[in-house]
Amino acid sequence: MHCSQCGQENPREARFCVKCGAPLDPEELRMVARETGRFSDMPVATAGYGGFWRRVLAAIVDGLLLGIPLAVLQHLFMPAPTGDPEAMARAELTWSLVNILVWWLYAAGMHSSVYQATVGKMVLGMYVVDYQGGRISFARATGRYLAEILSAMLLLIGYLMVAFTRRKQGLHDFIAGTLVVRRAR
Ligand SMILES: [Zn+2]
């Protein structure tokens, strides 16, 4: 039996996880979670939550995947410095908006897709669920993305929260009501 809370592989006849003590029966787990708030009552089998460094690696993969083509496009389409500071500022602003648009469509589109993950999260074996273990909508994923900008603006403290919270949630996960979980093999 695979523990949905910590990923521990348990003997078939075990009723409770030998490592973290969580009930292995999903129905029993839901009951204990509701009563004690000790465990997540996620009704899907996962290998636990996506930890801080795993999520940093996923972000690096996504950053390379989108960052490199965007940098190439910027190089191709951004006008060369003309000495006109106003034109340059306009171009910079336009480019920032293009970046936000591309990242929004990518993050919200992928997180609300059947994969429930960006390519980076997929590579690192993670996906995003709501508190019931289900897939999030595009609108919810958009809210999560906007909250992620907030997480980043707070000197990345919103991201660092992943390392210190019980269910490894960043500020954006709390705001959007999401969990990042590891795929059970
Ligand atoms: Zn466990």
Automatic annotation (TrEMBL):
A Gene Ontology cellular-component term: plasma membrane
Keyword Transmembrane helix: yes
Membrane-related topology note: Multi-pass membrane protein
Domain Zinc-ribbon span(s) in chain numbering: 2-24
Residues in RDD domain copies: 49-177
Record localization: Cell membrane
Keywords: Cell membrane, Membrane, Transmembrane, Transmembrane helix
Residues passing through the membrane, by range: 56-77, 97-124, 145-164
Keyword Nucleotide-binding on entry: no
InterPro entries linked to this entry: Pra-immunoreactive, RDD, Zinc_ribbon_dom
PANTHER family with a match to the protein in the record: MEMBRANE PROTEIN, PROLINE-RICH ANTIGEN HOMOLOG-RELATED
Protein name: RDD domain containing protein
